[in-house]
Amino acid sequence: MRLGVAAILHDVGMCLIPEEILNKPGPLSSEERNLIKRHPELGAQALRRLCPDSDWIAEVVLQEHERAGGQGYPRGLKGEEIHEFAQIIGLADTFEALLHARPYRKRFLPHEAVRELVTKEKTSFPTKILKCLIQQFSVFPLGTHVRLNTGESAEVVELNPQYPLRPVVKVLKDTHGSSLKEARTLDLSKSSLVHVSEVAQDDQ
After folding, report:
1. φ, ψ dihedrals at 179, nearest 5°
2. Cα–Cα distance list, 39 to 28, 42, 49, 54 (Å)
3. 138 CB-near residues (< 8 Å, 6+ apart)
4. N or C: lower Cβ tally within 10 Å for the chain?
5. What are φ and ψ of residue 108, in 5° steps?
């Protein structure tokens, strides 16, 4: 319940940023970006005024953009200096943002977003929290068609919770795209030289 309340309120500071900045169609100036980055502080200040007996909520809101490696803001906290709720909300917020298109990139599908977090944000969030997310949204869900770095095409038939980027696959097509007479099963966690290079369309 406490985590849910904090999650609902985590971006309340955005309500204190002028709408013309939030909805600006073009690129933001450095001053405007810095103002938006102040939204955790603004939200925490507002919550401390409104809920003086619930300072922990304000602290979680203040820390939501802190990252485990110290690369976050506003205070550059590291590791266990960051409230666990703030870490969970920060990961969920980052995941949700990846599911929406931005002017500079297309939207990610859920399994693509998880893979992006595992490969590029692994120093930003605690491993145990990342694992919890992976359990909910597998990097390569069962039935996903993938292309291996060998050029072969395969289908994910089993997950490896310990190695989310290395599922068990059934190889269906050779490097030339021809269907194999007899598909073979390959556990990528036991084959260090072979890995998934991309998710293929179902008709590929």
Report:
1. -65, 135
2. 15, 5, 15, 19
3. 111, 114, 159, 164
4. N
5. -95, 145
